[in-house]
Write a structure and sequence with these properties.
The chain has one domain. Helices cover 67% and strands 5% of the residues. The protein contains 2 helices and 2 strands, in the order ααββ. A hairpin with a 6-residue loop joins strand 1 and strand 2.
């Protein structure tokens, strides 16, 4: 393939245009990143706060409706079921460690305690 001087000039001009375009794109990308980053952080912070509020509301709702006969949401039953499973696993861990679990708060308690040192519930009759 042979190039004459006008071909070389055209190629050089195209290469220059491409580099100018790349520079523009880089400037725009950098500006976008700089402008968007604090907004993204703000968004994450607010979403995290919202999630925490929903979580706390969920706990409050559960505590309020834990003993409802026909709970409005199926999650109520699933939460109760998993809480029982957690209680059982904690009891097994306590057994392995030679301890007991408090029937009130579920914390590990040394054997022989009459009252739970964590919540004060009477353990032994
Ligand atoms: Zn307790």
């Amino acid at each position: 393939m042979n190039f004459d001087s006008s071909d070389l000039r055209n190629m050089a001009e195209k290469a220059c245009d491409t580099m100018v375009e790349m520079g523009k794109n880089l400037r725009e990308t950098t500006k976008t990143v700089i402008d968007v980053t604090p907004l993204t952080l703000k968004l994450k912070e607010k979403e995290s706060y919202l999630e925490k509020q929903y979580f706390e509301l969920g706990i409050l709702y559960y505590q309020e409706h834990e003993h409802d006969e026909n709970p409005e949401f199926e999650q109520m039953g699933r939460i109760s079921a998993i809480r029982e499973e957690i209680k059982e696993v904690r009891r097994q861990i306590a057994e392995v460690r030679g301890k007991e679990t408090c029937p009130g708060c579920g914390e590990f308690v040394e054997k022989g305690h009459i009252f739970c040192p964590h919540c004060g519930m009477k353990i032994k009759l």
